[in-house]
Amino acid sequence: MFIEQASTGKNNWFLYILTILIVFLVMQIASLPLVIYLLVTNPETLQNGGLEVTTDTNLGLALTLLTFVAGFFSLFFCVKYIHRKNYLDIVTSRPKFNWQRFFFGAGIWAVLSLLTILITICTSEENEIVFQFEPVNFIGLAAISLLLLPFQTAFEEIIFRGYLMQGFTLFFKSRWVAFLIVAILFGLMHGANPEVKNFGAEIALPQYITMGLILGFIALKDEGLELAIGLHAANNILAAVTFTSDASALQTHALFKDLNPSASHLDTLILLIAGILFIAVCNRKYHFLHDGLK
User: What's the CA gap between 40 and 182, in Å, rounded?
Assistant: First the structure.
């Protein structure tokens, strides 16, 4: 059982704090090239004693994602040498990572996302969405997205739905308490994103928390992270290559630019419906809901 694998290895509370501190420190060190790049290309990014790290170039995106690559490998290093666990203990209950599940989850979410994107384009006012295909920039964006975004999404899934959800389950003696805490933390982690500033926390944060609830539920019921990582990877890759706006955390050379971005609680409802459809389709193939909500 995936959550029960939390009991393997060493699980003293201070080891979790130590691991989080190490991962955070490694990511800060790995972000130095990005900081230097931002200061060189746009000195005005040094604002009010802090860095505005939003970048709209492929190199800037790559340097941003490299911090997550560093976090990914440092987390597994800590799991192996501090917690004395097997790498897979925080990823899946299966003997090895199930790539079929990963690609199936990515494919289903891609279909749902593309349908949503198509509806958005068809219902938008004229001149609100601009087609901005730039072949060289787009090819670079696609390559970076396919190579590096999976590390970012896998890192977030493994540290939240794997490492932390297992740790909180040990601490609170309840997988469902851990599930709720991790979903809320996942939402709060995105609190610095431009969407929160532009649309308000009351609009943006429920979307992130809802996504956390969907991903956490899938991880618990499917006894592993493969479907969740696939969903998350497809979501972020498509977000990077299809749509961008000045209010987006990912300002990229995407195919379309939204000149009048907006958000409402309807977006949270649409996300919830998409999540339910995703779970239903995946359950039809893998039958992971048969044991109820125990």
Answer: 37
CA atoms within 13 A on the CB side of 154: 22
pLDDT surpassing 90 at residue 260: no
Q: Which of 78, 3, 27, 10 is nearest to 189 (CA)?
A: 27
Answer whether 105's CB lies under 8 Å from 226's CB: yes
In terms of Cβ atoms closer than 10 Å to its own Cβ (0-12, 13-18, 19+), residue 34 is buried
Rounded Cα–Cα distance for residues 143 and 158 (Å)? 23
Q: pLDDT digit string (tens) for 155-175? A: 999 999 999 999 999 999 999
Strand ranges of the sheet holding 129-131, from the earlier edge strand across to the other edge: 129-131, 256-258, 243-244
DSSP SS3 for 57 = coil
Q: E strands of 118-189, at which residues?
A: 129-131
Nearest to 165 by CA among 181, 187, 189: 181
Q: In the chain, helix, strand, coil percent, each to 5?
A: 70, 5, 25
- Global pTM reads 0.93
* Strand, helix or coil for residue 125: coil
DSSP assigned state of 154: H
The answer to whether 65 touches 141, Cβ cutoff 8 Å, is: no
The structure tokens listed for 142 are: 């696609």
Cβ atoms 12, 85 nearer than 8 A = no
